[in-house]
Amino acid sequence: MLAPERQKFILDELAKEGAVTVSRLAQSLGVTEETIRRDLEKLEKAEGLRRTHGGAVPIEGTSYELSLEKRKATNVEAKKKIAEIAASYVFSGDTIFLDASTTTFFMAKELKNLKNITVITNSLRVLAELSSCEHIKLISVGGIVSANQSFVGSLSERSIKESFFANKMFFSSKGVSKEIGILESNEQECGIKQNMLANSECKFFLCDSDKIGRVSFAKLASLADIDYLITDKVPDEEFVMALKDKNVQLITE
Amino acid sequence: MLAPERQKFILDELAKEGAVTVSRLAQSLGVTEETIRRDLEKLEKAEGLRRTHGGAVPIEGTSYELSLEKRKATNVEAKKKIAEIAASYVFSGDTIFLDASTTTFFMAKELKNLKNITVITNSLRVLAELSSCEHIKLISVGGIVSANQSFVGSLSERSIKESFFANKMFFSSKGVSKEIGILESNEQECGIKQNMLANSECKFFLCDSDKIGRVSFAKLASLADIDYLITDKVPDEEFVMALKDKNVQLITE
DNA sequence: ATATAATGCTTGCTCCTGAAAGACAAAAGT
DNA sequence: ACTTTTGTCTTTCAGGAGCAAGCATTATAT
Questions:
Q1: How far apart are CA A55 and CA A23, in angstroms?
Q2: pLDDT tens, residue by residue, A158-201
Q3: Structure confidence by residue, pLDDT tens digits, A192-232
Q4: How many angstroms separate the Cα of B195 from the Cα of each of B25, B157, B190, B230?
Q5: Residue B59 — very low, low, confident or very high, per pLDDT cuts 50/70/90?
Q6: What is the pTM of this model?
Q7: Counting CB atoms within 10 angstroms of each CB, which of A92, A246, B157, B211 has the fewest?
Q8: CA distance to A194, A247, B33, B161, per residue, from A242 (Å)
Q9: Considering CB atoms only, which of B53, B139, B145 is closest to A143?
Q10: Rounded distance in angstroms from the CA atom of residue B233 to the C1' atom of nucleotide D30
Q11: Helix, strand or coil, per DSSP, at residue B150
Q12: B21 to chain A: closest CA residue
């Protein structure tokens, strides 16, 4: 592999992941860490990135793609952790819904090595992530592509309602409160998720701790509608009680 | 093999793979590395590529996306030219179908700067390419994701048939013959394209010269069904006559 | 047949990569 | 707060792969 190829790969990885480590790059590219460091050195000089201990991060304020990612990328570590936990609840033979959220995108990465599963999604990013996996049956709802990189609109909703059923659903939202339930700020996404909920047996709500207690304007579902809530740390006691009361199982590990 | 042939091969390979090495080229072309280096030198002067140690990579800004997924595309230069011509037939206000082919993917890149157009496609790669364009209304058919990075299956066909209509359609196929018409090797893609054809007013068939005379097993449409055939160079006279006979307008520039 | 261009070959040189050793920084234990 | 430990970084060097240049050879054209 040629040096510029490698460097391009590094920039790609950086844009995709938000950060890269020397050791991981060395492993994925099959060269020594010294070579990676030299590449990073060059790229830093060319203003392509900023080096850090152990790896590199993007230059501040670069590609809009990144800023878009970054905007959504609050609480990334928590989301990755939740995604990992959620993925461990997917087994061979499952048919699952994934909505269009950052957390389910991370989850898709974790699912890549599973075999004999069917994934139905309205997320362009999940599709792109899983489309190369031969052993995963991947189904997309159609519809209008939103700014959110997802398919929305009446066609999407209708196709879910009429054509797709899953035994598990994994989704996220803007917020959740113990009084109101699960809240969303985007009506279109809300419609999609409601249709998915209606057609799935077992519902997993992926909710990083920042979102607990946060209220948004549209109600997506009530707590009683879901079966599991996966989050990154144990919420306050009142919230835990509310979950127990609504028969929602809390998963934090 | 003549020098210009070799150089065309090199550019093709470059576009296909994202990078080329001197040693591999020398082997595939059956010449020494010196000859390859001289070719690369010329091509670099002509701004066709950038040389590096051990090989060459594309000029910055071109086909960056290709390095991500290796494709088996052939005749890349011709396809890009055809894509460019095709894009010049799209105007503000149009609603167009794009199928899932390499040529329409290149075409999508050319469409990025247009405003007020609606694109309906079953190609994941076209979607990914255009999803960041705020000023393009982008619609996806749903369905099963095929190995071809496209949506296929009955759901796709039904959603096209029932929900989508366009004033122009741009598509490609595996081959075309003056006796039989337009041929496809993939039944699923074939079904999608036929449904798109049925729901569009003006049909543009994008056909690089390699495909003329090539026969495949499934008939997609007859020549009389299309309105325009866009290709990279004027075909042989018999084929041109056949087009004229079927009232198909030939576009080569 | 001769001139011109293209290709192949050889030589010395350059650049890239990987390995090793020491410097440095961050994290953890005392 | 200090030291230890661990991991990362820089520097240096050597081997090897790739390269430019000049010349010999072959192909092509006039």
A1: 8
A2: 999 999 999 999 999 999 999 999 999 999 999 999 999 999 99
A3: 999 999 999 999 999 998 899 998 889 999 999 999 999 99
A4: 42, 6, 9, 21
A5: confident
A6: 0.82
A7: A92
A8: 22, 9, 73, 47
A9: B139
A10: 31
A11: strand
A12: A2
Between β-strands A249-251 and A228-230, what pairing exists: parallel, antiparallel or unpaired? parallel
Q: Check: CB of residue A50 under 8 Å from CB of residue A11.
A: no
Hey, CA dihedral for B52, B125, A72, A29, is it positive or negative?
A: negative
Strands of A228-230's sheet in order across: A249-251, A228-230, A200-206, A166-171, A95-98, A117-121, A136-140, B143-145, B151-152
Q: CB A5 to CB B155 under 8 A?
A: no
Six-digit token string for A196: 């998915």
Instruction: Output the six-digit token pair for B44.
Output: 């670099």
Structure-token pair, residue B188: 């699923």
Query: Which chain A residue shows the shortest CA-CA distance from B135?
Result: A147
B46 closest CA partner among B79, B3, B110, B2: B3
Can you tell me which residue has its alpha carbon closest to the C1' of nucleotide C7? B35
Q: Taking Cα atoms as reference points, which of B156, B77, B142, B87 lies closest to residue B117?
A: B87
Instruction: Kindly state whether B141 is in contact with chain A, defined as any CB-CB distance less than 8 angstroms.
Output: yes
Q: Do B163 and A155 touch (CB under 8 A)?
A: yes
